[in-house]
Amino acid sequence: MIEITNKIYYVGVNDRNKNLFEGLWPLPNGVSYNSYLIDDEKVCLIDTVEVDFFVPYLKNIQEVIGERPIDYLVINHMEPDHSGSIALIKKYYPEIQIIGNKKTFQMMEGFYGIGEGTLEVKNGDSIELGKHTLNFVLTPMVHWPETMVTLDTSCNVLFSGDAFGCFGALNGGIIDSEINCDTFWLEMVRYYSNIVGKYGTPVQNALKKLAGIKLDYICATHGPVWHEYISKVVDMYDKMSRYETEPGLVICYGTMYGNTERAAEVIARAASQAGLKNIVMYNVSKTHHSYIIRDVFRYKGLIVGAPTYNTGLYHEMDVLLSELAGKDIKNHLMGWFGSFGWASKAVAEIQKWNDERLHFEAVGTPVEIKQSLTPETFAQCEALGKAMAKALLVHS
Length: 396
Description:
Layout: E1 2-5, E2 8-10, E3 13-15, E4 20-21, E5 25-26, E6 31-33, E7 36-39, E8 43-46, H1 54-65, E9 72-74, H2 80-83, H3 86-92, E10 97-100, H4 102-112, E11 118-120, E12 126-128, E13 133-138, E14 148-152, E15 157-161, H5 182-196, H6 200-210, E16 217-220, H7 230-241, E17 246-253, H8 259-273, E18 279-283, H9 289-298, E19 299-309, E20 312-313, H10 315-326, E21 333-340, H11 346-358, E22 361-362, E23 367-370, H12 375-395
Parallel strand pairs: 8-9, 9-10, 10-11, 15-16, 17-18, 17-19, 19-21, 21-22, 21-23
Antiparallel strand pairs: 1-2, 2-7, 3-6, 4-5, 7-8, 12-13, 13-14, 14-15, 19-20
Helix pairs in contact: 5-9, 6-7, 8-12, 10-11
């Protein structure tokens, strides 16, 4: 039984077995599915957990309230890792009222066939539990259309759904003041950039709705309960949703026989010698793209390079550029280079991606390498690295 504050309890679970979150994102440190229970005159459960973990989840709930019934279940977000236990909760607590908005219930009917025992709320509505008052704030498209947050105005606690969440299981401690949070910061960026990143404007709208509200705790559905670091996590979300970056450079490349990789090394060395310190390099066929996307959100500069393959663009680079385009990222600088053995296409295809989908500010002159580096293309790679470094240092 873990009390956060004033009869608000953590009843969530950890998943240390899943390899890919949503079948897409690696989980080297696992993930938590967070749920919360308010023990008042009326008992209120906030969100549920993935259905595979229902047995330990139910034990956590019963450890707090014993045989008492649950009066309300608030669903802030309908993704099944948070709503998956609704049907089983209703079997154990048949009189429970499920609180959500109109779109919540449309999805609940579709996912679970549940359409009764509901209490619809609109933006700004409140309910009284006794000593606790819950206020509901709709935050559509952060990052689904039904998303909302719940504010316990009596305790200054925000139940934020996926907002302010991150990858990583909780290793004993729940509240940030009880644990070393160092491993969570980059995992918050990776979580945001890959899952929420496309929806910067809705995130900004949500932050405006919450501006000026005193918060002592933020209870997200993944990761630690934020207490000491509230200002930091809110600032991170604010910056990421405005696509604010650091003056650094991501160089990512595809390579078959090493020639494109050698060009990437020349570019990186030249950027470093020009005074740029924050440089990260990735082979797009080796590193999971979620880590590359994370760093593209962190750093303003991007240089990509790949070989021509089957008279088109090297597959993994094509996939990465598609993923980046889908995030609607703004305010970035981009350079590119490519190689070919007998048919030149990579450079033109990368430029097409930028012209039609990415719309990043082009920096430097693209470099096209036939078969392997020559003194001329070596110098062009150096020039590209220096041009990007100069542009980034001017923006810093």
